[in-house]
Amino acid sequence: MPNTHDLASEYRSDPRSTEELVALAVAKDIDLDNEEYWKPIRILQHRLSAEFERFHRLACSKSQKERDVAATILGQNSVKDKFDVERCQMALGEMLSQPDLSSPPLASILFALGQLKAPGYVEMLLRFQQYPDADVRYAVTTSLGGTDEERAIKALIELSRDDDFQVRNWATFGLGSRTDIDSEEIRLALVDRLSETDDEIRGEALVGLVSRRDIRVIEPLLRELNQWRKQPLVKDCADKLLEEREKFGPEWHSVLCELERVGYKTSN
Description:
The protein has 268 residues and is an all-alpha fold. The protein contains 16 helices and no strands. Helix 2 runs antiparallel to helix 3 and helix 10 crosses helix 11. The protein is elongated and about 65 Å long.
C-alpha cells in the first residue's frame, strides 16, 4: 500500500485540469460512488494552496452540489500538512451565512470545520447542535469528537440522547473513547447507553466505562463477555482489563473469572 507521501505526490502530479476534476466530483454521489467521488476530491485538496481563490468562488456557487464539493475541498481531510486552516475556516464560516444553504452542503461544511479544528470551530459547530436534519447533527457530533473543550463535552452528552442512531453512536464514541476527560456527567451518559439494543452503541458505552474503571459496568459487562468473539468492542474491554489488571480493584475479580470461563484469548 502506498504511504502518505507517495499518495500526496500522486495527487499533485495528476494531469487533469481543475475544471475536469471539479466536474467529476460534482457528478458523483459521495455515498453511492465512493472512490469515484473521493479520488478527484483528494487531488483538488492537494491543489488548494495554489487555487484557493478558485475554490473560494466555487463556495459561492448557485449550485448546492458545487458548494458541497467546495466545502469538502476546504476541509482537506486527506491532506496531512493542511494549507492555512484559519483562512479556510473563514471561508467555511462565510458559507454558513448563505441564506439558501441546504442540508447536504451544510453538513459538509461542519465536517470540514472538524477536520481543520482552527480556533473557534467548536462555537461554529454548536450553532447547529439542534438542527432538524439528523445528517447535520451527525456532522456536528463527529466534528466535536476529539476535543476536550467543556462546551463540546456538554454537547456530546446531550447528543448521546439524540433520536437518531448515528448521532447517538458517534456521541457515545466521542465520550467513551475520544476524550480522557472523566466526570460523573460523562459516566452517567455512558451508563444510560448501556440499555441500547444496538451492540455498537452499547459496546462504546462499555469501553468508556471500563476505561474509567466504573464499577457500574461490571454487571452489564458480565452479561456480554460470552460474545467477545462476535463483538469487537467487548473484546476491547477484555483486552483493557487484562493489559491493566493491576489498576482494577478486587471488585473486578468476577469479570476476570468470567473471561476465563468463556475461553477468552487475547490477540497479543
